[in-house]
Amino acid sequence: MINDITAVKKQYENSNNLNTRISVHDKYSTNKIGFGRWIVSNYKIEPGMKILELGCGTGSMWKGQDLIVNSCYIILSDFSEGMVKSAKENLVGYEKIRYEVIDIQKIPYDNKTFDIVIANMMLYHVPDLNKALAEVRRVLRDNGTFYCTAYGENGIIKYLSKLLSPYGLYDNQNKNFTLQNGDKIFSRYFERIRKLEYEDSLAVTNADDIIDYIYSLSDMTELSAGSREEIREILLKNMTNGVLNIPKEYGMFVSQ
Fold first, then answer.
1. End-to-end C-alpha distance for the chain, whole angstroms
2. pTM of this prediction?
3. pLDDT for 179-225, tens place per residue?
4. Into how many domains does the chain fold?
5. Which residues of 152-174 are buried (b: 16+ CB within 10 A; e: fewer)?
6. CATH number for the domain including 71?
7. Fewer Cβ atoms within 10 Å of its own Cβ: the N or the C terminal residue of the chain?
8. CA dist 158 to 23, 169, 246, Å?
9. Distance separating alpha carbons of residues 178 and 23, to the nearest angstrom
10. Domain that holds residue 219
11. 122, 144, 189 from 129: Cα distances, Å
12. Contact assessment for residue 99 and residue 88, using Cβ atoms and an 8 Å cutoff
């Protein structure tokens, strides 16, 4: 499991690894709504709201959300300076968005500052999750909403690690926070919690794209043996009619 903050910094020092994974999801996801659009569709945002996103990554989900961006006060933040830089570059022209480097364990804002706090696909990285959630709860206004997406324990990495275990691919994903345990964790800090599940899978036709995906997770998985050619051969053998079907498990917690 990844608990070492140095490894997290290395994984997200720039957007290259993240962009590799995003491209695989964009190219092969069977749910054509798209995870990013689904996430935004669940936000209940009204004009004038103050919004803080923690772990914004490349900020790509805010592209095209002109109505929201122009009518709200939005801060996009990330623990990684490299990610904040990528978000700025990706969202050129959105002058009302502010960008900051913020550690979720020590949010530099007063109590009850924000109507909405967002943390997508990042809580499992946090060394002190209780401290982080206490901070989120502190900066949320009364009746504010915390939107948080997470992966489940039965998705892509579990499937690939079973398939490629002879070549040393092990499921070392951090399971400190998942769809399976998130509601129990959140119940310590929030009164109302809803879990929304996003139905999806990957239908992959090019094995090399999945190999690139695996190597982009080098700090989250362990691949100790086997060449690309050997791994490609295993993937090809598990294709049906030229398609490798890989399960995905993602969802969102909406907490108030």
1. 29
2. 0.88
3. 999 999 999 999 999 999 999 999 999 999 999 998 887 654 555 55
4. 1
5. beebbbbbbbebbeeeebebebb
6. 3.40.50.150
7. N
8. 20, 10, 10
9. 23
10. 5-255
11. 11, 20, 11
12. yes
